[in-house]
Amino acid sequence: MRRAALRLCTTLGKGLRAPGRGLTQGSENPEKQRVLHMHEACSPIHVNHVRDKLREIVGVSTNWRDHVKAMEERKLLQSFLAQSQKGLPPRRMKDSYIEVLLPLGSQPELREKYLTVQNTIRFGRILEDLDSLGVLICYMHTKIHSAKASPLSIVTALVDKIDMCKTSLSPEQDIKFSGHVSWVGKTSMEVKMQMFQLHGNEFCPVLDATFVMVARDSENQGPAFVNPLILESPEEEELFRQGELNKGRRVAFSSTSLLKMAPSAEERTTIHEMFLSTLDPKTISFQSRVLPPHAVWMEDSKLKSLEICHPQERNIFNRIFGGFLMRKAYELGWATACNFGGSRPFVVAVDDIMFQKPVEVGSLLFLSSQVCFTRDNYIQVRVHSEVASLANKQHMTTNVFHFTFMSEKEVPLVFPRTYGESMLYLDGQRHFNSMSAPANLRKDYLVEP
């Protein structure tokens, strides 16, 4: 499936680079080719072309003091919303295809933002870039030429999957992102994105990402219809079919959630065997528990952090930027895996990040991370995110993040003490088993926080 996506993007991208020119040099017609420089997106001083393009499409101000007025003006765009999907012109996959350049090699001054102390690339920054790109891709798909600004509010609903490929990541080589809409429902869109890095004269694949975005009305209050998709080749038909399967898989995974249904017989046996292995053989008691060799209690694997959500981290709709939330959750998850395994962990996969509730500017963001499953040198980390306003101390869950890391050496087993922790263990096991295939990546092929 990943190969089909790469073949399609290669086809969609034909002509996007002028022959004989280096990709970092751009093309003779950059507007036509939609090649944007990602590095300005999150610069603390300059406005990124991607983020700037999003503000232009939505028609909002870069000045925090003007945000209320800008949101009021968006109410006038309600008349441009379609009353049904049939009233919208169909679009092709290549209509939303975009390439974005991160010229770390040709513009060395950009590296510090993406650099770790080990001279690798910060994956948290990549998550921010992917989130911005996913939104822009959807705006390209739903573009309304007659409207000065888009009447749609497009937000990230779900990070379905991010899988790493066998490609080295150097902070001294240019990076390219590409992506397009691969599936649409009535109000939602699936976006396929790839990341490549320059090696010699060729861009080699680094990761594949699948995001699900939803369209809402101009005030971000209710759902809005999106343009249907025209399929022009067998590869595109396969991508669309995979999108349907992904939707069905998510529904099935949700319906069997341990928050709704009891564990399977095999899972119950696993938990019971783990429980028996922790009973103290010197006593005849269910209360006396001891750890097996090379094991850690789950409750001892936790780390927590607190963030104050400042206006600087807001998105184009004056909520906290989803990419910022992902970066903070990832960095805490990485620290948790590092602290647990005793060596540098490397990200292998990210999956099932559901954005359940928007985070308002000024909120207190509480992040809690813990190891919930291990196997060999793999560490499955779950990060729980909740917010509380300064006026209201009630905490509300906004996100749950799932990260799979690989350590440089074999890590301890993690054992649950309580029934709740046992459910976390089984949930972590399910997410670990949902990886496309166990990764076998060398440490120089991977990225850090």
Automatic annotation (TrEMBL):
| Keywords assigned by UniProt, alphabetized | Hydrolase, Mitochondrion, Repeat, Serine esterase, Transit peptide
Q: Which domain of life is it from?
A: Eukaryota
Location of the HotDog ACOT-type domain = 96-219, 299-411
Name of the protein described by the UniProt record: Acyl-coenzyme A thioesterase 9, mitochondrial isoform X1
Might you name a Gene Ontology BP term for this protein? acyl-CoA metabolic process
Q: Which organism is it from?
A: Panthera pardus
Q: Which residues form the signal peptide?
A: none
- One GO CC annotation: mitochondrion
Instruction: Just give the chief location class.
Output: mitochondrion
| Family statement drawn from the similarity comment of this UniProt entry | Belongs to the acyl coenzyme A hydrolase family.
| Gene name of this polypeptide | ACOT9
Entry's localization field: Mitochondrion
Q: Does the keyword Isomerase apply?
A: no
Q: Name one GO molecular function term.
A: carboxylic ester hydrolase activity
